[in-house]
């Protein structure tokens, strides 16, 4: 018997009034993957997260989680998923332990099972010595760990996290990722995140890049960067269009202007830089060479920088 996909998304679209937030998104996520929905603000990540977590009703297309449709088996889906929201869901006036027990009451987890799962999570998330602390006295990183404990208390097979690194310092972010990787390795949990952080997406098994509600790329981080290939050259110029024309006419280099910078991809970056400086140094204010990044993937797919705002 073939195991169902952890998540199957088929032709999902969503509207807020007349504004279309998602357009025909189709993809699947395998059990045990760490999967990131990556995109700038307004890309559609949060809308898709709300649909996956059953916070919003699906109007166009279908989503199945472990073989159960969110349309027809919403209760069963909720039993299989853990959810950590971007906005805090903790009661700041309660202790760490009280917050966890409050979550347990929602799932009917009591007695020896509650004690067993609580002890395991406190140990795994390094919260044992903080379990009696009031939440409002904790750092942002510790609060995030308590959120994770709540989300994992009922042992879900799929864990959904919305921008989980928001407000975390680098050390807390690394600790969170160690835990997520252990969930996948030790328990086979499928971990699905939304993020607008390019460096965070590098840690995923696969990435789906969303932009203006559309799926523009889907693959492993390395495979996406390999599609760009070679080296990336970025040039700052006071006359970008004149430089682009000269590179095309004299060096047969295909460059484009992105956010007031001239960019091009080439197989041999150092050799290309030498030719550019020989032919057009008077038009170059600064020039840099780098291997392709996820930012370059986004630019190749959309024609603009990742952080560039788009007017709806």
Task: Describe the secondary structure blueprint for this structure.
Layout: E1 7-16, E2 19-29, E3 34-38, H1 45-52, E4 60-65, E5 68-69, H2 74-80, E6 81-84, H3 96-107, H4 111-124, H5 140-152, E7 158-162, H6 170-187, E8 190-195, H7 198-201, E9 206-211, E10 214-219, H8 221-228, E11 231-236, H9 240-251, E12 256-258, E13 261-266, H10 269-280, E14 286-290, H11 294-302
Parallel strand pairs: 3-8, 3-9, 6-7, 7-8
Antiparallel strand pairs: 1-2, 1-4, 4-5, 9-10, 11-13, 11-14, 12-13
Helix pairs in contact: 3-5, 8-11, 9-10
EC number: 3.6.3.-
Keywords: ATP-binding, Hydrolase, Nucleotide-binding
Protein name: Daunorubicin/doxorubicin resistance ATP-binding protein DrrA
Structure explained in plain terms:
The protein has helices at residues 45-52, 74-80, 96-107, 111-124, 140-152, 170-187, 198-201, 221-228, 240-251, 269-280, 294-302; strands at residues 7-16, 19-29, 34-38, 60-65, 68-69, 81-84, 158-162, 190-195, 206-211, 214-219, 231-236, 256-258, 261-266, 286-290. It is α/β, with parallel strands linked by helices. The protein folds into two domains: 7-220, P-loop containing nucleotide triphosphate hydrolases (Rossmann fold); 230-291, Alpha-Beta Plaits, CATH 3.30.70. β9 (206-211) and β10 form a beta hairpin. α3 (96-107) packs parallel to α5, α8 crosses α11 and α9 (240-251) crosses α10. It is elongated, with a radius of gyration of 23 Å. The model has no long low-confidence stretch (mean pLDDT 90). GO terms for molecular function: ATP binding; ATP hydrolysis activity. This is Daunorubicin/doxorubicin resistance ATP-binding protein DrrA.
């Amino acid at each position: 018997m073939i195991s169902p996909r952890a998540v199957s998304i088929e032709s999902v679209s969503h509207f807020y009034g007349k504004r279309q937030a998602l357009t025909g998104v189709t993809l699947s996520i395998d059990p045990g993957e760490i999967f990131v929905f990556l995109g700038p603000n307004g890309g559609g990540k949060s809308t898709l997260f709300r649909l996956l977590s059953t916070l919003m009703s699906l109007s166009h297309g279908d989503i199945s989680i472990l073989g159960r449709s969110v349309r027809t088996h919403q209760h069963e889906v909720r039993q299989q998923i853990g959810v950590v929201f971007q906005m805090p869901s903790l009661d700041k006036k309660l202790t760490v332990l009280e917050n966890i027990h409050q979550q347990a009451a929602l799932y009917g987890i009591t007695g020896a099972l509650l004690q067993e799962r609580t002890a395991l999570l406190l140990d795994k998330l390094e919260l044992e010595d903080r379990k009696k602390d009031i939440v409002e006295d904790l750092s942002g990183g510790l609060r995030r760990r308590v959120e994770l404990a709540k989300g994992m208390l009922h042992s879900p097979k799929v864990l959904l996290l919305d921008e989980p690194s928001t407000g975390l310092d680098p050390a807390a972010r690394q600790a969170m990722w160690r835990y997520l990787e252990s969930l996948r390795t030790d328990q086979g949990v499928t971990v699905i995140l939304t993020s607008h952080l390019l460096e965070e997406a590098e840690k995923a098994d696969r990435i789906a890049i969303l932009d203006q509600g559309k799926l523009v790329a889907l693959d492993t981080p390395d495979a996406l960067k390999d599609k760009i290939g070679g080296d990336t050259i970025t040039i700052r110029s006071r006359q970008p269009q004149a430089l682009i024309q000269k590179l095309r006419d004299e060096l047969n280099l295909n460059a484009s202007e992105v956010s007031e910078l001239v960019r091009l991809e080439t197989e041999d970056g150092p050799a290309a830089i030498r030719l550019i400086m020989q032919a057009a140094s008077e038009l170059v204010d600064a020039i840099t060479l780098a291997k392709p990044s996820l930012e370059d993937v986004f630019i190749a797919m959309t024609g603009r920088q990742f952080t560039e705002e788009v007017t709806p």
